[in-house]
Amino acid sequence: MATAAVGEPVIQMDGLSKHFRLSNNLFSSNKLIIRAVDSVSMTINRGEIVGLVGESGSGKTTLARVILGLTPPSESTVYVDGIDVAKASANDRKRLHREVAVVFQDPSGNLNPRQTALGSIMRPLRLHGASRAKAKERAREVMESIRMDDRYLHSFPHQLSGGQCQRIAIARALALNPKIMILDEPTSALDISVQAQILNLLLDIQEALSLTYLVITHDLNVIRYVSDRMAVMYLGRLMEFGPTDEILRNPRHPYTQGLLAALPVMNPKERAREKPLMTGDPGSLIELPEGCRYHPRCPRARDQCRRETPPDAAISPDHIAACFYPAD
């Protein structure tokens, strides 16, 4: 796992929300509100790796889109390197496009099938005004960073393996010398052995360049391996946030405990102590329950949980859990 770096806040959100309005049908005036991200408060410091986990539909990708400025927030805002993303000027947006890079899940789908690797890496550089010669030179530099030979620059995506395509996508993200990288399921489409190679590469790049990572994944083992702190989302809300080692060792929110209980137990001696798995469906962002959003599936839910939204309980100075009755 990475070593936490002490730095000033580089991504800040306080009560950030993103809601979508959805009509029942074409002629209906009634609008359903989908609370994809609801009152999320989180700070990511410069030079650290934060992992964001949760089931499908928890709001992880929507949160990333708001941070990237791809969709405006409904309430509050997010500051990235001191810039209010919702009110950013054209110059501020250009700066953010240079400083914040993103790597998506599907390696081959990330790249234009009609462009060579060289063309894909050069494109963001050319869009930001680099000459063709400078862009080619920078492409060769980042190929060295991702440990691929220059000869692959002239390959098309269909001529590369999944791991090689993901390395090219990482190279493209590095081309503009970003300060922040958002990695949305960067290894889930890869073979296990290739996953380890990509994760080690990302850790080496992060350490060498002092980058800030937000890693979005379903895989808690990836979070265990790479992140300094982890955030757990469920139905648009932040359930638990704190140091990765502390949360994995002693999860305090029932939802986090359920996610950890679902991990495969490889040691036969540990199987006898397996915890009960979560029951029930993940729930819907369209029909949210009153009170705590997890209470329909929570084994410790009480009447207060069904009526009221729990505040963030401070477990330690760096560890919070949104629960009225956090586990001991």
Describe the structure.
The chain has 328 residues and is α/β, with parallel strands linked by helices. It is built from eleven helices and twelve strands. The strands form two sheets. The chain has an eight-stranded mixed beta sheet with strand order 6-7-8-3-9-10-12-11, with helices on both faces. The chain has a four-stranded antiparallel beta sheet with strand order 2-1-4-5.
How would you summarize the topology of this molecule?
Blueprint: E1 9-23, E2 31-45, E3 49-53, H1 60-67, E4 78-80, E5 83-84, H2 90-99, E6 100-103, H3 117-127, H4 132-145, H5 162-174, E7 180-184, H6 192-209, E8 212-216, H7 220-226, E9 229-234, E10 237-243, H8 244-249, H9 254-261, H10 268-271, H11 303-307, E11 313-316, E12 319-321
Helix pairs in contact: 3-4, 3-5, 4-5
Structure summarized in a few sentences:
The chain is α/β, with parallel strands linked by helices and 328 residues long.
Summary keywords:
328 residues, eight-stranded mixed sheet, alpha/beta, Rossmann fold, four-stranded antiparallel sheet
Tell how many strands the DSSP assignment holds.
Answer: 12
Low-confidence stretches are: 1-5
Helicity, in percent? Answer: 25-40%
Question: What is the topology, as strand order, of the major beta sheet?
Answer: 6-7-8-3-9-10-12-11
Using only C-alpha atoms, the radius of gyration works out to 21 Å
Question: Main sheet, how many strands, which sense, barrel?
Answer: 8 strands, mixed
Shape: globular
The percent range for strand residues is 15-25%
In N-to-C order, the SSE pattern is EEEHEEHEHHHEHEHEEHHHHEE
**Average pLDDT metric:** 89
What is the CATH class?
A: Alpha Beta
Quaternary organization = single chain
**Mind telling me which CATH architecture this is?**
3-Layer(aba) Sandwich
Instruction: Kindly identify the CATH topology.
Output: Rossmann fold
Task: Enumerate how many helices there are, as a single number.
Answer: 11
Look at the structure and name the CATH superfamily: P-loop containing nucleotide triphosphate hydrolases
Class from helix and strand fractions: alpha/beta
| Total separate domains | 1
Intertermini distance: 25 Å
